[in-house]
Amino acid sequence: MKNNKKKGSSRAQEPQIAVNPEEERARAIETGDFSKFNDEAEALYEQRLRDLQAEADRSLPPDPDALLEVRHLKMYFPLKKTITGKVTLSLRAVDDVSFKLHAGETLGIVGESGCGKTTMGRAILKLYKPTGGQIFFDGADIAQYKSKQMRPLRTKMQIIFQDPYSSLPPRSTVGGILSEPVKVHAIVPKEQTKDYVLSIMEQCGLRDYYYERYPHEFSGGQRQRICIARALSVNPKLVICDEPVSALDVSIQAQIINLLKHLQQQRGLTYVFISHDLSVVKHISDRIGVMYLGSMVEFGSKKSIFSNPMHPYTKALFSAVPNPNPDVKMDRIVLKGDIPSPANPPKGCKFHTRCPVAQEICKHIAPKYREYEPGHFVACHCYPQEDQ
Ligand SMILES: Nc1ncnc2c1ncn2[C@@H]1O[C@H](COP(=O)(O)OP(=O)(O)O)[C@@H](O)[C@H]1O
Ligand code: SF4
Ligand SMILES: [Mg+2]
């Protein structure tokens, strides 16, 4: 075709990578002069480096000790497409997230509303088709599994939602709600279904006469117990708890958290516990991941994250947790502005527009996500970016 060099062709619009981005980057870092720095080219360069890393990591075997291992997970939602279907703008709800979770542990995921917690949980369960990355569950990469391949795994991975009001069918009795998945997945012989359901109800603190009752007859806390019982009825290994107590009264929250902890000990469950409430996460988690605008900015054991929070975003979140000791002065770090749109995230470090300690380099170059103490990962220019 004659026209392939016309102005509007997608090739002509593609931002050009700097002749030698590494040199340009090294020069800017050394001189501290970013005035001629090409941010577009740097963003593309970073993207390519990340893609290359993801490709290189693909062939690595999964960690045999991890029940769940997520590598370079991406979940982009297309916002604009050309008439030929090419995506020209996407919302990067989850952007290159990696972590490992051992069986029987709880990973708490924290971050402000809109930072991608729910999307990540849903992508892990394959309720969305991930845009990229690997999801090893029990040693098998399920990221590209089709729904038929996922079917036998559905019982092994369950989710508990935030809103116990809308997540239960109003016209079924508690017995009906809990029996259905047990029958569909043939968890026990048919004639044992009722006894089995009653035993699950008992474990979840539900009286046996609730069996004939309807969801509307219960309070929020009781409904969440029904949701937990439904998730557990199919014997899962992994449960994603998406803000399971956020809609409940504070007095009820502790009961549900304690129930989840008790069930975990009894059944060896592994939890991904999503919450914006740090005190709840502190109570239940073994490991903590802090998300900002689709990225994991800090990850580590509860002890290392609470005793030594390193990322300025984590520090700001922690500074907002009320201290029960009235003698301890609260030094609250107030973040400026709203969380930016994941459709158009800031260049460089995505947090630089709100970070109280941002430097010039943060506006142009994304920090590396590096391990600073065993199992403690951080992405921030405040810490060495290369091996010393
Ligand atoms: N189905 C969807 N289509 C398009 N955008 C979505 C969809 N689901 C979530 N998002 C967007 O993805 C971002 C992350 O959302 P979410 O995962 O719900 O965050 P969180 O759970 O941390 O509050 C938000 O900007 C949200 O608007
Ligand atoms: S990289 Fe810079 S902007 Fe980002 S968190 Fe660290 S100091 Fe703040
Ligand atoms: Mg959410």
Provide a compact summary of the structure.
Helix content is 32%, strand content 21%. The protein is an alpha/beta fold and 388 residues long. A hairpin with a 2-residue loop joins strand 4 and strand 5.
Provide structural commentary.
The protein has helices at 10-13, 21-31, 39-58, 117-124, 147-154, 174-184, 193-203, 220-232, 250-267, 278-284, 302-307, 312-319, and strands at residues 66-81, 87-102, 106-110, 132-137, 140-141, 157-160, 238-242, 270-274, 287-292, 295-301, 369-373, 376-379. With 388 residues, the protein is an alpha/beta fold. The chain has an eight-stranded mixed beta sheet with strand order 6-7-8-3-9-10-12-11, with helices on both faces. β11 (369-373) and β12 form a beta hairpin. The radius of gyration is 24 Å and the shape is globular. Bound molecules: adenosine-5'-diphosphate, iron/sulfur cluster and magnesium ion. Adenosine-5'-diphosphate (ADP) binds at residues 77, 91, 93, 111, 113-119, 342.
Identify every distinct bound molecule in the structure, by name, code or SMILES.
adenosine-5'-diphosphate, iron/sulfur cluster, magnesium ion
Strand content: 15-25%
**Mind describing the biggest β-sheet?**
8 strands, mixed
The helix fraction, in percent, is 25-40%
The run of helices and strands is: HHHEEEHEEHEHHHEHEHEEHHEE
Low-confidence parts: 1-12
Structural class: alpha/beta
Radius of gyration (Å): 24 Å
Anisotropy-based shape: globular
In whole angstroms, the N-to-C terminal distance is: 54 Å
The total beta strand count reads 12
Mean pLDDT: 91
Q: Give the spatial strand order of the biggest sheet.
A: 6-7-8-3-9-10-12-11
Question: Helix count?
Answer: 12
